[in-house]
Amino acid sequence: MASEARDMVACCPGVPGVARDVVASRPGVALLPRGAGEPRGRRRCQDAASAGAAACASGAEGPAQPRVLVPPRSAGGPRDWTLDPDGDWYQRWLSAAALPVLYNWVVIVCRCGGQLAGLWLGLDWASDGLYLLDMGLRLHTGFLEDGVLVRDRGRTRRHYLRSPAFRWDAASLVPLALLCPASAGPAARANRCLRAPRLLEALERWETRTARPNALRLARLMLLALLAIHWHACLYFALSARLGLGTDAWVCPNATRPLRRYLHSFYFSTLVLATVGDTPTPRRKEEFLFATAGFLLAVLGFAAVTGSVASVIANVSAADAAFYPNPAPVLRYLRARGVGGRLARRVTRWHRHLRAQRKPPAEREALRHLPRGLRAEVAASVHLPALRRVELFRGWEGGVLRQLVPRLRPQVFGPGEVVCRRGDVGREMYFVREGRLAVLADDGVTRLAVLGEGLYFGEISLINIRGNTAGNRRTADIVSIGYSDLFCLTKEDLAEVLAEFPHARAALEAKGRRLLLCTGKLDAGAEAAAAEAERRARALEGALGGLQARAARLLAQLEAGAHKLARRVQRLEERLRDGRGGPPRKGGAAAEP
Question: Per the database record, which ranges form the Cyclic nucleotide-binding domain (predicted)?
Answer without folding.
Answer: 392-498
